[in-house]
Amino acid sequence: MPAFPDAARSALADTQLRRNLAHATGTIRARRASAVAELDDWERLREAGRAVKERTLRHLDRHLVQLEEKVTAAGGQVHWARDAEEANRIVVDLVRATGEREVVKVKSMVTQEIGLNDALADAGIAAFETDLAELIVQLGEDRPSHILVPAIHRNRAEIREIFLRSMGAYGTPAPADLDDDPRRLAEAARRHLREKFLRAKVAVSGVNFLVAETGTAVVVESEGNGRMCLTLPETLISVAGIEKVVPAWRDLEVFLQLLPRSSTGERMNPYTSTWTGTRAADGPRAFHLVLLDGGRTETLADPVGRQALHCIRCSACLNVCPVYERVGGHAYGSVYPGPIGAVLSPQLRGTASEVDRSLPYASSLCGACYEACPVKIDIPELLVHLRARVVDSERGRLVPAPERLGMAVARWVLAAPSRLAAAQRAGALAARLVTRRDRLGRLPGPLSRWTDARDAPVPANESFRAWWRRTHR
Hints:
This protein is of the alpha/beta class.
């Protein structure tokens, strides 16, 4: 993937994408605002969610040990994965042990993070997405662009074409007379998925919350596909980041109010599935929980950056972000798009790549994301914090970055009043050569990157220093 500025430039040129995003995010914002307005104690709920997450991360080691003990006592098995490679190997080995060559999947951000579908495919195992939006992405050989609605960049006409073109290659084909009516599209998806649910012996899921005191896993969803995957197969493999733990069952009271209102604008999730280990007469016969670190321990060690681990994946920050609304999720080059992706991905993956170094700058710092976040993650603070980290990482370069050279020149000029006065006179003279009405035109060389993206005011013909000297002789 290219760095964010280049990817964003390409996305901005796609007018259909911008129309799709504006319509979808606008609709979700309105629903969320209505649902939140019903609660007089919304701000107290946000503060409670933040406090629970902060307290949990402070004692995360203890809660994880308790979680493992409870899951094991209930008949499940816990596996620990340091990184994506180890997590993929564990899941592939578990599926191979069953003798099966296909799995059904519940929508899961963490399995996208580790690239599980590709790892399964390399091992000769077919993975079928059962979430409607994820199904659209899979059939279209596309990539998710939103945390909650992975196919938010597609409209109904595009989805119809994808179903007609690709559904038959994966299973039950779409009806030949399929139109773009939402009900008929959903019906075609249900018919396609039904055979997968009834045939699958292994399911892979993510987890929204893990309750340490009982060993309970929780998945919330809106379609019922998750419930089918979690109950029908004989083997259930759940993959979760270690930050998904909450200490006690009572903590779910807070998050099960915050999450649906912030994500879908609903009072409660249509389907909330919980399971604790295995039972002889109900549900899967084998349950495996894969706990992934994947950079989370390093993130936890950062007193400022650890806020990103509070995220409950509601996507509220994406829906209010003016940058995301115009460029979509693909421009971020990460499974986690939008404001939360701009602060989470560079911490989980590091800032070695151009993509990750550019993400903290993919924001106007307007603060809308912080106001919308149900657990009060101060994303603008994190963005500035990570920008400083990127700058620090570039200090040892043999060839300094243009920004660093520019700041060095500015420091030299500002260090002496005479140099500053000379620079002001030169700037005023040069500005008159490139002025267009009341703003600067395109500056030459590297400076053009600034004027191409911003309207810069024309410098005054006379500096304050010169005015003072003239009027206070």
